[in-house]
């Protein structure tokens, strides 16, 4: 499932061709993805100008001139691909339609944005822009990890007395929005915190130190175009490459990269997900 860096990478790739442009024609080629599309979605989108593209957690929101916002979730295999871009940022002509091209936006500037999703775990919805934060998918989300509300004091207070493992606490979207398995593993390694350590037993000093580290991990991943493990592609169709910089994720049995450490990276399963860590560097 794409995490914050992958979604932010896609948003940044879409912005040059969608922001300020009008959706000249929207085509919806099936009735649903993970959930049914909203009624008359194609008609409600056609003719609308995209005033702003933003991200909330792992969702992309396109604020429209109609007073509605299009919410997009990529799911497990969803891709937003751009072709025919007149700004010269993308080199692809419009490709032949594919089986899993479920939603297509032809923009008035000549660009085409195609949502392709073979597994159909993605989602789209239309909601009033002025009350978007109250949408069921957004209402309970915590602060953005790259925003000002995600502070040392917030995280220390949120984890105080928590009996859950640190890994689980950082994956709780009510505590911090957008973090997923990959980047929590990487952040915990950089901070030397074991993923199974009880959150409430980690000192306030060490919890506070996680905030700038989480931001650094996410910033590094965004700069690398995200991580491509299976299906993720950037808006221009290219792979992200942050996976080549993983310190622990997916490196079970490989040597720890900390200078002077002779341990191998280990894996444990927490709530059905793999956690990767160094037994010497993380306590």
Kindly summarize this structure in a few lines:
By secondary structure, this protein is an alpha+beta fold. The chain has helices at residues 4-18, 41-45, 152-159, 166-171, 181-191, 204-223, and strands spanning 23-28, 50-56, 59-64, 68-73, 79-83, 101-107, 112-116, 123-128, 266-270, 273-277. The longest helix is centred in the C-terminal third of the chain and has 20 residues, at 204-223.
Describe the structure.
- Residues 228-234 and 239-243 have low confidence and may be disordered.
- The strands form three sheets. Strands 1-6-7-5 form a four-stranded antiparallel sheet. A four-stranded antiparallel sheet has the order 2-3-4-8.
- The chain contains six helices and ten strands, in the order αβαβββββββααααββ.
- Helix 1 (4-18) packs across helix 6 (204-223), helix 3 packs across helix 6 and helix 5 (181-191) crosses helix 6.
- Strand 6 and strand 7 form a beta hairpin.
- The longest helix has 20 residues, at 204-223.
- With 283 residues, the chain is an alpha+beta fold.
- The chain is elongated and about 55 Å long.
């Amino acid at each position: 499932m794409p995490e914050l860096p992958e979604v932010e990478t896609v948003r940044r790739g879409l912005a040059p061709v969608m922001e300020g442009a009008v959706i000249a024609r929207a085509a919806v080629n099936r009735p649903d993805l993970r959930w049914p599309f909203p009624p008359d979605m194609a008609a409600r989108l056609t003719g609308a100008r995209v005033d702003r593209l933003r991200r909330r957690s792992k969702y992309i929101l396109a604020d429209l001139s109609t007073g509605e916002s299009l919410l997009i979730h990529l799911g497990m295999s969803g891709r937003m691909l751009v072709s025919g871009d007149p700004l010269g940022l993308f080199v692809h002509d419009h490709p032949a339609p594919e089986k899993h091209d479920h939603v297509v936006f032809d923009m008035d500037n000549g660009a085409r944005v195609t949502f392709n999703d073979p597994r159909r775990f993605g989602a789209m919805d239309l909601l009033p822009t002025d009350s978007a934060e109250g949408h069921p998918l957004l209402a309970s989300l915590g602060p953005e990890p790259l925003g000002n509300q995600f502070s040392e004091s917030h995280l220390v207070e949120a984890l105080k007395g928590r009996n859950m493992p640190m890994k689980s606490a950082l994956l709780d979207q009510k505590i911090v929005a957008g973090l997923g398995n990959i980047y929590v593993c990487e952040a915990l390694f950089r901070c030397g915190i074991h993923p199974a350590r009880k959150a409430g037993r980690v000192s306030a000093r060490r919890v506070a130190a996680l905030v700038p580290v989480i931001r650094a991990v996410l910033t590094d991943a965004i700069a690398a175009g995200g991580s491509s493990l299976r299906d993720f592609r950037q808006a221009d169709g290219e792979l992200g490459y942050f996976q080549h910089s993983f310190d622990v994720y997916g490196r079970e049995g490989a040597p720890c990269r900390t200078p002077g450490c002779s341990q191998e990276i280990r894996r444990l399963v927490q709530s059905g997900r793999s956690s990767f860590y160094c037994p010497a560097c993380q306590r």
